[in-house]
Specification:
With 265 residues, this protein is mainly alpha-helical. The chain has one domain. Helices cover 74% and strands 0% of the residues. The chain contains 13 helices and no strands. The longest helix has 28 residues.
């Protein structure tokens, strides 16, 4: 059994980035194995999301009394972004446990397995994008040059995913019950994050509480460009603060606890 003990968090990060062929291949293999033997393969992801969007979107649009041509694109963009973020958070709680055979037998930084999980979910998110494009086509949603902001938005979200996924993964490896706690918290956050409901439906006195939800800002990173909007200044400020906080926790945790992960599994 070999355990790679990085001299610094920077060396762990650079070593993991230089192993991009490994985590990219593993991520693609995960997708292929999940749908092995299926006729349409990973596009079951697209079909499943499309069914959810049309059934829930139409229902909640009627319940909230919202114009379908405005609500369905908003709901779809928010839902596929939420699925992307929530799956990364949930899978972070068990990524090292699932990678135990690799950790025991290969001399690779533990961040390689975090990258693998994030890339896998980026691929799944990409399979869901056609659902939004179909909704945008049906309801003639304007797609302008702000769609190009999707690339920096995805980059910012991925950077934070690396930081916070690593933090969650290390804590979950040491304290397995964290996974169940995070799962329950995410269920609550889904309902208090504007995914099914629109932000302007919230009374003004509650807007301050909405701004305390970090997932609100991460969702906007991908939803706004899809809806033809640019990034709001307060979103960028909040993301900057969250990124700095993530780095502040990531650096000491990866340096001190990464070599111990294998002993906690």
């Amino acid at each position: 059994m070999k355990i790679k003990s990085p001299k610094s968090s920077f060396s762990a990060l650079t070593a993991s980035l230089s192993s991009w062929r490994i985590w990219l291949s593993l991520a693609l293999q995960d997708i292929l194995l999940r749908y092995r033997g299926s006729v349409i393969g990973p596009f079951w992801i697209t079909i499943s999301t499309a069914i959810t969007v049309f059934s829930m979107g139409i229902l909640y649009g009627i319940l909230f009394g919202l114009e379908r041509s405005n609500y369905l694109p908003y709901f779809t963009a928010g839902l596929i972004t939420w699925q992307f973020i929530s799956m990364i958070v949930l899978e972070s709680t068990k990524i090292f446990l699932e990678s135990k055979p690799y950790l025991e037998n290969f001399d690779l930084p533990c961040l390689v397995y975090v990258f693998r999980m994030i890339v896998r979910n980026v691929i799944i998110w990409a399979h869901n994008l056609p659902v939004y494009l179909l909704i945008a086509l049906i309801y003639k949603t304007e797609i302008n040059l702000n769609i190009l902001l999707l690339a920096p938005g995805l980059l910012l979200l991925s950077i934070n995913a690396i930081l916070y996924s690593t933090i969650i993964a290390l804590i979950s490896a040491r304290f397995p019950d964290i996974g169940a706690i995070i799962s329950n918290i995410l269920q609550v956050l889904f309902f208090i994050t504007p995914i099914m409901w629109v932000e302007n439906a919230l009374p003004d006195r509650f807007h301050a509480y909405l701004k305390l939800n970090p997932l609100y800002y991460f969702v906007n990173l991908l939803r706004n460009p899809l809806l033809g909007k640019s990034f709001a200044a307060h979103d960028l400020i909040a993301i900057s603060i969250l990124t700095i906080l993530g780095i502040a926790f990531f650096i000491p945790l990866i340096k001190r606890y990464a070599p111990r992960v294998i002993f906690w599994l």
